[in-house]
Amino acid sequence: MKLVIGITGSTGVIYGVRILEVLKQLNIQTHLVITEWAKKCLAMETEHKLDYLKSISAEYSDDSNLASGISSGTFKHNGMIVIPCSMKTLSGIANGYDETLVARAAGVTLKESRKLVLVTRETPLTAINLENMLKLARLGVTILPPVPGFYTKPKSIEEIIDHTVGKCLDQFDIEHDLYKRWGS
């Protein structure tokens, strides 16, 4: 399995870091693309450097490189997760505005009928945000805001993060033990 992972400049970049770590542990290939604002969030919100993210990804493309393989439908992969997904990126995807590689790769994922998961980060939401989400949901995109499941009784921020990462993996039927399932 190969997944494209987009990380955009919305608070919560740790979700993107964690999903890359988990996918690496599960031996699932990833192709990472990270926006300039996500790089700034990485520095503000974590102790991680871009080189660390590159080291746990099978491939990396710069967000300005619209000639990257992931900008073409001929690039074979099983789907894409944008984690976190800013409202700017959501709008670009919803309206076919492929200014960045993240938006272009997401658009290609859609046109090739592959699974696209957007971990949208913003609150409160405007009617514009909701309309963009609805437009994409009607096209089959999974809108997966990072909403913790407190039935798991998380004891740390890491457990809350793992819940959202696990929910993303569930979208691709990837087995994991990141959280306790309801009723188990």
UniProtKB/TrEMBL annotation:
<dbReference type="InterPro" id="IPR004507">
    <property type="entry name" value="UbiX-like"/>
</dbReference>
<comment type="similarity">
    <text>Belongs to the UbiX/PAD1 family.</text>
</comment>
<keyword id="KW-0285">Flavoprotein</keyword>
<comment type="function">
    <text>Flavin prenyltransferase that catalyzes the synthesis of the prenylated FMN cofactor (prenyl-FMN) for 4-hydroxy-3-polyprenylbenzoic acid decarboxylase UbiD. The prenyltransferase is metal-independent and links a dimethylallyl moiety from dimethylallyl monophosphate (DMAP) to the flavin N5 and C6 atoms of FMN.</text>
</comment>
<keyword id="KW-0637">Prenyltransferase</keyword>
<protein>
    <recommendedName>
        <fullName>Flavin prenyltransferase UbiX</fullName>
        <ecNumber>2.5.1.129</ecNumber>
    </recommendedName>
</protein>
<feature type="domain" description="Flavoprotein">
    <location>
        <begin position="1"/>
        <end position="172"/>
    </location>
</feature>
<keyword id="KW-0808">Transferase</keyword>
<feature type="binding site">
    <location>
        <begin position="9"/>
        <end position="11"/>
    </location>
    <ligand>
        <name>FMN</name>
    </ligand>
</feature>
<feature type="binding site">
    <location>
        <position position="151"/>
    </location>
    <ligand>
        <name>dimethylallyl phosphate</name>
    </ligand>
</feature>
<feature type="binding site">
    <location>
        <begin position="86"/>
        <end position="89"/>
    </location>
    <ligand>
        <name>FMN</name>
    </ligand>
</feature>
<dbReference type="InterPro" id="IPR003382">
    <property type="entry name" value="Flavoprotein"/>
</dbReference>
<dbReference type="InterPro" id="IPR036551">
    <property type="entry name" value="Flavin_trans-like"/>
</dbReference>
<feature type="binding site">
    <location>
        <position position="35"/>
    </location>
    <ligand>
        <name>FMN</name>
    </ligand>
</feature>
<dbReference type="Pfam" id="PF02441">
    <property type="entry name" value="Flavoprotein"/>
</dbReference>
<feature type="binding site">
    <location>
        <position position="121"/>
    </location>
    <ligand>
        <name>FMN</name>
    </ligand>
</feature>
<dbReference type="GO" id="GO:0106141">
    <property type="term" value="F:flavin prenyltransferase activity"/>
</dbReference>
<keyword id="KW-0288">FMN</keyword>
<dbReference type="GO" id="GO:0016831">
    <property type="term" value="F:carboxy-lyase activity"/>
</dbReference>
<feature type="binding site">
    <location>
        <position position="167"/>
    </location>
    <ligand>
        <name>dimethylallyl phosphate</name>
    </ligand>
</feature>
